[in-house]
Amino acid sequence: MRTVLDGGMGRELKRVGAPFQQPEWSALALMQAPERVLQVHQSFVAAGAQVITTNNYAVVPFHLGDERFAQDGEALTVLSGELARQAADEAAGTVQVAGCMPPLRGSYRPDRFDVSFAASTYPMIVRALAPHVDLWLAETMGCLEEARAVATAVSGSNKPLWISFNLRDDVEDVVPTLRSGESLQAVLALAQELRFDALLFNCSLPEVIGRALASIGPLRDKQAPQLLLGGYGNTFTPRDASAEANADSADMREVSPAQYAALADEWQRSGATLIGGCCGIGPEHIAALVK
Q: Is the pTM value of this prediction over 0.90?
């Protein structure tokens, strides 16, 4: 059975007219127009999303700067949890809230991961979101150690842990690798070691996610059949190792809701049951997944 996740918050906030600029990106709406964040959550719920994710992906030093993050990061993270919880509780059906555990120093750049900073920062995010969320979703993880840091931070919360990795999409590898170059076999081994509840891939080309799921699906069936699989892709063009996270200049492709749903059907045939969207995937795409 397929569980439908929401889509990309940042681009949708921009589309509905929320304040939006770099470097704050989607965090700016939390600061200046939280009602727009609630509106977008509600739009994804209305489209049929069964899981919505808190809008704290950009509440990190990369987007806010170290000083403003230290001053306002926890309060903004709490607000993101409250808004998602409100949208879920107002829904006609059951909607779960996933607590976002984001990259702290920018997407697509595992070379910037700082284990000591992660160890001191992720517990704050857990503390801020725990009263409002049903599960944890580590997003756009670029390397295994980044995922390990999140798993450590949430270990005492007794909530399910979903970890979603980012794949290299600037090469035509038959079997994709993480941005760090680490293999899918290593990812699966870590999932078994740390007992993830779900393993996903996100913020990569849908076609690359499809290749990853096709490769890892048979391994999962043999080694960890209880592990849920999933994916949520973007509409970017391929991004190389020099790409900066969520740059306004990022080139977008036209991916219609029907095209995206067809790609997601391929993921499901490879064993994925958790399917949603990332940057550029709006409520209309989510509605197509539901159908």
A: yes
